[in-house]
Amino acid sequence: MPSFEEMLSKKTVFENISVLSPHYIPKELPFRESHIKEIMFVVSPALRGQKPRNLIIYGKTGTGKTCTVKKVQQEFNAFASSKPSRIHYINCRIYNSRYRIMQKLLKFYVKELEKSGFGLPFLYEKLIETLEGGEQIVVVLDEIDMTKDLDDLVYTLTRANDEAIRGGVSIIGISNKLSFKESLDPRSKSSLYETEMIFQPYTAEQLRKILEQRVREGFVEGAVDQSAINLAAAITSQESGDARYALKLIMKAGEIADQEGKSKVTDEEVESARMRVELDITKETINTLPAMHQIVLYAIARLTDKGSKYARLDGEFNGVLFSGEVYEEYVSLCRALKKKPRTSRWYKEYLNDLEVLGLITTTPSGKGVRGQTTLIRLGPSADTVMSVLKDSLL
Predict the structure, then answer these.
(1) Is there a contact between 232 and 270 (Cβ–Cβ < 8 Å)?
(2) Are residues 67 and 148 in the same domain?
(3) pLDDT tens for residues 236-284?
(4) Which of 153, 177, 199 lies at the terminal end of a domain, its last residue?
(5) Is pTM beyond 0.85 here?
């Protein structure tokens, strides 16, 4: 039987593997200095006892949004250690409702909230009391679009700001979707969208420099060929510009080198890592989708597996589905799962989101198709999607 002693005695290409984690915040964030400066400018009034403007940050996955905001949070909280102002970070995929967000936020100020059983009116009164003490609170809502009752949350915080004379609470929202604000009511939209910022995907050259920085800290000196770094950056740039993908790719390449007893990471290990990382990221992306998105994706996978009922004998539509048949399958699945299906307008939003994530591709129908519709093609294999979703959905 293998032992941990044996494992730890083996040579490794890694110096500190945690440096390659997407959650690691380096001392310097390459190519995000201007974003850091802008966010610092937005939140700095809190250090003077004034309420900052709300800020919404957009950008695709892996563009450094969360890491940049957390960097500012670190600097802000260190500077404000003796002041009544603080930035709090909340992941809305975990704390996904007004009640849970307020409870999580206020636990820092009200120790009795460690116990459960307090209602929303109690939380609201405690928020007012906290603000009346002069606190300037900035709450970072990562994946803000995952908040089920965001309109209610925005209304509650706005009302608290109106009632409190001394302090204030501001929001920094982070989202992968430019379109999510369309679902907000006009009052929430006008109060929430005071400032907006967009993070563009990294270029191949930027990804190369980011990888070089992390490789210097994370790997034994000389353990990674420069050509391997260049290849990982080029692959990522072609795929998505997602820095998290690039970091996973170089980390997985290092793990492969360790498993095979090699002392260097070369192009060969990067190529071997590519397929494994793509599958890992696909599974992770699917698992973290909201329920309705998962049902739509499962409907697409199931129809892809069975074959479109509109497929022609000449194979023109092999692997391609019509939007209407997918919607019918989605409604059928919702009923089977005892969930209320959403309208076709929401369904189109789900398709847009799945396409942004690279899980499907859509194109308008052309010649040979009666009427106007959208043609849908699944990105990953139908087997992969169904096996990932079978447990969580069915």
Answers:
(1) yes
(2) yes
(3) 998 778 999 999 999 999 999 999 999 999 999 999 999 888 888 888 8
(4) 199
(5) no
